[in-house]
Amino acid sequence: MSTDAGAALYTGPWVDWSRDVVVGSTITLSARSASVLTAVLAVFVTVVGRCLWKILSFVAHQSSTSANAEDGIYHQHQLVLRNTGSPLQAAKSFADIAWRWRTKGRRPWLRSLPLAVFALVFLLAFGAASILTSLVTRAAGAQRLIISNDCGYWSFDPAATLEQRTLAMQYKDLNDTLVAAEYARQCYDKDTSLNNKLRCGMYTKQSIDWKSMDTECPFDHSICSVPQAYKMDTGIVDSHFDLGVNAPRSGRVGFRKVTTCSPLSSTDDYVSVITSKEEDGFGIEGDRIRRYHYGAYLGAAIDANTTYLYNQHAFIDGFGYELNAVEVLLDDSTFLSIPELKPTSADLTIIFLAPNAIKYNHPTSDPFFSANFYVELGSFQGVNLSYFSADEYVSAMACADQYQYCNGDDNTQCTPLTGYQQAWTALNSSKLNLNDVQYTIASRIALTSRSLSTFHSISGRGAAALRAQDTIYDRVQQVPLPDNQWQIELSNWFAISLAKLQHSIVEYAAPSVRKEDMPAGAYLQEPFDAVSKAMCYSQKVALTGNTVSFSVLGVVIILSVGGAIVLTYLILEPVVGWIQRRFHWGEFKRIRWIMDDKFQVQRMAFEGACMPGGGEWMHLDGGVPVTKEKGAVFGDLRDVDFRAPRLGKHWAAKDLDGQNTPPGIQSISAFGTMPPSQKAHFDRRDQPYQAYQKSVYQPVSPVPQ
User: Fold this and answer.
1) In the chain, at which end, N or C, are there fewer CB atoms within 10 A of the end residue's CB?
2) CA-CA distance, 494 to 497, in Å (whole number)?
3) Environment class of residue 25 by beta-carbon count within 10 Å: exposed (0-12), middle (13-18) or buried (19+)?
């Protein structure tokens, strides 16, 4: 497929009207900018995950908080819930607790494993949610808007000479046909399209759907050489979904093309043979000239009553297939069709196929390629020299092309099926009720609809337009042609016309030829009204290039939901604590939450160990306690037993009586809480141990609920 000159993919915000404005809101970024946004979203989702885990941990902690004395497993669970920011780390801690308490605790596995499983389930669920954030790019789809510095219609300069305009028109028509033929072969043929996904990924739809069927002859039955004609119908082609013109439903147009064809009779009623004379210009003197009478151009220089001339000498001149076509527009005043071949509401294409010197290795019963005349030549050195020859010098076929436009809002208001010029004229009918956007889109299609005829799928290419030519080697048809080869050829030409339609629609926003490179006689007619200019930025393609699209709705959901979770995390603890203090609803839960904080646990550990230098602590009711004395230092390891580490001095000194300090003092040093006022008593050597023990371990009344 040709590369559109100077075209680029649009980056920025836009609405994909395949969905509504909310779901279809899209932002397309370059790969570099997209990687930054993706990284930001990934970091944000990670932060949200940690916040959500802390919220759930807070709820779990507060739900299980008790004012009563509990065992070690309980307290360690609460510490994990209070201080662990990672669900994986929490799961590991819960599993470790169950393992360490397996012989000393009360149902350690039953109490710990559910918490570990909960943490793992959260980890997996949020991991999956993080992966699903990639859907913000998938939800945006794989389609982009294409833009170009040039935009508009290919037009022909009335100030140029007739020859320049003709050559420019032929250049345009042939180039478009070649591009469309290549695309149709690769992307419309079901046998090969699967192998050409990269080449077929240009348009919003790889191919326009159409149906074929047998039908009645569109001409007089006496001229059709087969019982049933062949009809090809696109149905309603949607300008948005099928052609990629990005617009809401109210700005869409439906387009339909119907082509009906049939091989024609070549009896003596329509064919005459004359002998050429030197002066008639048909050939050299004595050549047999076959004249085909299906209509004629009025005022023709050679023969006003002949549609096509064939010199039978070409049969022995060694030529291959020769394919020609004649176009007759509806209501054309320059061509007079025979009554049997004059359609009432269609453009006409008459096709002539001359096999010339083509030899067939197999008999062919196809009505357009019929070859059953056996030429017996024997064999030479084991090679069969015999072959089959065409039954007719020339086979003829005719096609009726019809077009239709519909209001795409409901596709119930449509113009009649008719010729391309008549269908375009009918666009102005008030019956369609087209708005400005719809009319502009319909005009874009109409401006190229003439080149969608069967004639323009063939003209200028000769035998190259035949699929049967693909199996010719040295003027020999190598494979047996199927009986429906004529329908295969028609299907190919019809597909070419649809590929042309796809190409022409995209070419408006991104012309295939720069305006400064256009041939003499042609120019780019740039849009001049607001609607036509807007169309330059409304053409979708299936190319992604070096861009990534994000669903605005998806990004907003991620940011809003994630922001709500982060905000909840930030205010949940202070708000719940305030309520607990203000209304005395479970205030012991607030105290437990504070006491289980890692900083408070550390503070209580140092206080309980009577570490010298620590002094008194402040902000005991907050998250981070601090020492009242500025710059206080404590926590050295000089007296720590590395085999059984604990804070404070490992008491091995003697008491006043010279006896070893009772074991209770070690217990107090390790786990007790000794306020400074009581520590002074401990430092007095005349204070009996029993009195201190009694003062420290006073009965504790239950905390009020």
Assistant:
1) C
2) 5
3) buried
CA–CA separation, 692 and 678 (whole Å)? 8
Residue 370 and residue 397: Cα distance in Å, rounded?
13
d(CA 527, CA 533): 5
Q: Give residue 572's identity as a one-letter amino acid code.
A: L
Element spanning 64, H or E:
helix 31-64
Rounded to whole angstroms, how far apart are CA atoms 204 and 5?
Answer: 19
pTM, full prediction: 0.79
Q: Locate 188 and state its tokens.
A: 């419309």
Q: Which among 90, 4, 98 is positioned nearest to 50, based on CA atoms?
A: 90
Element (DSSP H or E) covering residue 292: strand 288-292
In whole angstroms, give the CA distance from residue 489 to residue 321. Answer: 14
Tokens of 364: 């062919």
| Sequence-distant contacts of 61-69: CB under 8 A, at least 24 apart | 61/592, 61/593, 61/596, 62/576, 62/586, 62/589, 62/593, 65/586, 65/588, 65/589, 65/592, 65/593, 67/588, 67/592, 67/702, 67/703, 67/705, 68/702
Which residues, other chains included, contact 289 with Cβ-Cβ below 8 Å and sequence gap of 6+?
A: 273, 274, 275, 276, 282, 283, 309, 310, 311, 312
Domain boundaries, the chain: 7-140+553-582, 609-696
Strands 7-9 and 522-525: unpaired
**Helix, strand, coil % in the chain, rounded to nearest 5:** 40, 20, 40
**pLDDT tens digits along 376-431:** 888 777 777 888 999 999 999 999 999 999 998 788 889 999 999 999 999 887 77
* Dihedral angle of Cα 563, 568, 569, 574, to the nearest 10 degrees: 140
Return contacts of 598-603, CB within 8 angstroms, 24+ apart.
Answer: 598/79, 598/82, 598/83, 599/623, 599/624, 599/625, 600/625, 601/79
d(CA 224, CA 367): 11
Cα dihedral: 72, 75, 81, 87 (round 10):
0
Q: What is the pLDDT of residues 584-638, one digit of tens each?
A: 888 888 888 888 888 888 888 888 777 665 678 888 877 788 888 887 887 777 7
Question: Would you mind telling me the total number of residues written for the chain in this entry?
Answer: 705
Q: What angle is formed at CA 520 by the lines to CA 515 and CA 526, rounded to 5 degrees?
A: 35
Each residue's pLDDT tens digit, 511-568: 888 888 888 888 888 998 999 999 999 999 988 888 989 989 889 999 999 999 999 9
Burial code (b: 16+ CB inside 10 Å, e: under 16) for 515-550 equals beebbebbbbeebeeebbeebbebbbbbbbeebbbb
Torsion angle, alpha carbons of 69, 72, 75, 79, to 10:
160
Contact at 8 Å (CB) between 632 and 613? yes
How far apart, in whole angstroms, are the C-alpha atoms of residue 145 and residue 153?
Answer: 18
Tokens of 453: 């005829």
**Angle ∠(190,229,419) on CA atoms, nearest 5:** 90
Decide: 310 and 282 in contact? Cβ < 8 Å. Answer: no
